[in-house]
Design a protein that fits this description.
Order of helices and strands: HEEHHEHEHEEHHHH
Distance between the termini: 75 Å
Number of strands: 6
Radius of gyration: 24 Å
């Protein structure tokens, strides 16, 4: 599949005038999260965070952009797919997602990974369902529906269920509230929707937004997701270290003995 072709098609289908970018935010950091690898009729396809950012930007008629929602959705899918499929490579069409984070960035990221968005090849289409703030699946994902749910979102909205459609095996990923600065959701409403924030509040929010996005992109899974446990620290190899010291000591004694004979 030609990436440039479907990005162009997607941009023509859903090009909008409103920017998805956060004005004044710093550029997203360069990160190597590793790709989501899927199979399309035996052909391996690597999906990177940069691919998702480019698709999101194209649908918005903007330059590539990895926003907080893009990053969270990509990382939830990456982590969930790794847990469900393990070392196996999933068929793209076998990936299912229920997503409670309804925003442009999240929708576009989910569309891209599951192959369900504009410009994607329907032969490899997975499944994605978006759940509204009222807990009911959104039947018609219009611009107004996305805006309504985006405005009302809270840290609890960052919830994802990743499913292997052929078996029904499912894992959940929810974002730790510690990722967000205190009052982030409320200030976002004041800045983006109510337009009542003071200049100082806007400046602080933009800084908090940039820091939060960087945390989402750079933190390990166990910091980002409530369901992922921190891996145990490797215990020091006491036996191996002791043997090494004994060998080293024996070598030293041998060298001394040889030196005395000389």
């Amino acid at each position: 599949m030609k990436k440039g072709l479907f990005l162009l098609c997607a941009a023509l289908v859903l090009c909008q005038c409103v920017s998805a970018h956060m004005p004044g935010a710093s550029p997203a950091p360069e990160v190597d999260l590793g790709p989501i690898v899927v199979s399309e009729d035996g052909e391996l396809v690597e999906i990177t965070i940069d691919d998702v950012g480019a698709y999101h930007g194209a649908l918005e008629g903007q330059s590539p952009d990895v926003c907080i929602c893009c990053g969270c959705t990509y990382r939830a899918l990456l982590s969930g797919i790794q847990e469900v499929w393990g070392d196996e490579v999933p068929e793209r069409s076998d990936i299912g997602l229920e997503c409670w984070l309804v925003s442009k960035g999240s929708v576009h990221a989910a569309w891209y990974v599951t192959g369900t968005g504009p410009g994607m090849d329907p032969a490899y289409r997975g499944e994605v369902e978006f759940i509204g703030v009222d807990g009911v699946p959104i039947a018609n994902l219009t611009k107004s529906a996305i805006q309504k749910n985006s405005k009302a979102r809270t840290p609890e909205s960052y919830r994802f269920e990743i499913t292997q459609r052929s078996t029904g095996e499912t894992v959940e990923r929810t974002i730790s509230e510690e990722v967000f600065p205190e009052g982030f959701a409320e200030m976002r409403k004041k800045v983006k929707f109510e337009k009542t924030a003071t200049p100082d509040e806007i400046t602080q929010f933009v800084a908090d937004y940039s820091a939060t996005r960087d945390t989402v992109l750079e933190s390990p899974d166990y910091v980002l997701f409530n369901e992922v446990e921190e891996p145990p620290e490797e215990a020091p190899d006491v036996v191996g270290g002791g043997i090494f010291l004994l060998l080293l000591g024996g070598l030293g004694v041998g060298l001394i003995a040889v030196h005395r004979k000389e």
